[in-house]
Every structure is written in C-alpha cells, then in structure tokens.
Write a structure and sequence with these properties.
Distance between the termini: 6 Å
Strand order of the largest sheet: 2-1-3-4
CATH topology: Rossmann fold
Shape: globular
Bound molecules: 4-nitrophenyl phosphate
Low-confidence stretches: none
Structural class: alpha/beta
Order of helices and strands: EHEHHEHEH
Largest sheet: 4 strands, parallel
Number of domains: 1
Number of helices: 5
CATH class: Alpha Beta
C-alpha cells in the first residue's frame, strides 16, 4: 500500500503548523485516507518544544471541530528530511530556515502550503504565505483556519495520484 508522509512547518509549532495538522487530519479522515497520508508538524525554532498549541489556536480550531489539545511543539531535525516525503512550510522565512538545515538532495521536498489552494479559489488574491497570527488578534487565527482548510483540500487532491496502489 502506498503512503505519503507530510510534515507541516512553521516558526513556533504552536499556531499555524498544528492548525494545518489538525485540519489535514480531519479532512484525511473524512476522505478515508488516514492510513495512506501520514501527518506531523514541527517548528524551525526551539522556544515552544513540549508545549501544547497556543490557546487561541486551540479555541478557534475547536469551534470548527478540530482538536489540537494533544499536540506538542517540537523542532525540526535533519532526520525529518529523510522521514517525510513533503515538508510544507507556512511562509517564506520557514522555507529559508528549512533550507539551512536540509541536505541539498532533499530540497525539492520543501513546499509552501498556499501552493495547494485550488486555482478556482479566488479568496486569497495570490497570497504565498499563511501569515503569522502570534502577535495579532483573534481574526488572524480565523484566517489561518480559512487558509488551511482551502489548502489542505487542494493538498489531498494533489496527493491522490501518488496513492494509487
Ligand atoms: P507559529 O507562531 O510559528 O505559527 O507557531 C508563532 C509562535 C511563537 C512565536 C512566533 C510565532 N514566538 O515568537 O514565540
């Protein structure tokens, strides 16, 4: 059985990448692909290792039916580039930080999450990034969820051809 493994990556691993992980797990479950698409998340920084997701992220996610409470922050390691087929970053700074620790032959595994928003979804006006909500208000966490929902739907569609047994 073919599988694809994905690690979502942000700076702290307490706001955006756990949100992407929670949304993706939910959508993958609905698509009956939980055994085929393996999901994790990590941060490029080390400040929040071992911590649960930011309470604002947990609250906003739980109102949409995504449960983030069991997740814990961790920092990306060199071995993650071997373990995962795709490392999906939230913003360009995350990509730059990943490139610093990524073996040259694994660089093409690094992508931006917003690349996967379907072209027919005109809401984001070509936005490349999931903007960091940490220093902003509650609306930032809602936008992160909106973007993750749009992009993860497109990501599942993009992965389906790779899963054909
Ligand atoms: P995240 O958000 O990268 O989406 O998890 C942040 C979390 C923590 C910090 C910055 C962004 N921080 O500066 O501690």
């Amino acid at each position: 059985m073919k599988t694809v493994s994905i690690c979502f990556v942000c700076l702290g691993n307490i706001c955006r990448s756990p949100t992407a992980e929670g949304v993706m797990r939910h959508l993958v479950g609905e698509a009956k692909l939980a055994e085929r698409i393996l999901i994790d998340s990590a941060g490029t920084g080390d400040w929040h290792i071992g911590q649960p997701p930011d309470e604002r992220a947990q609250f906003a996610a739980s109102r949409r039916g995504y449960e983030l409470a069991a997740l814990r922050g961790r920092q990306i390691t060199a071995s993650d580039f071997e373990r995962f087929d795709l490392l999906i970053a939230m913003d360009d700074k995350n990509v730059a930080a990943l490139c610093e620790v990524c073996p040259a032959e694994q660089r093409d595994k690094i992508r931006l999450l917003m690349e996967f928003v379907p072209a027919t979804d005109g809401r984001w006006d070509g936005a490349r990034e999931i903007v960091d909500p940490y220093f902003g208000g509650a609306e930032g966490f809602e936008q992160v969820l909106d973007q993750c929902e749009a992009a993860c739907g497109g990501l599942i569609a993009a992965l389906r051809p790779q899963l054909v047994a």
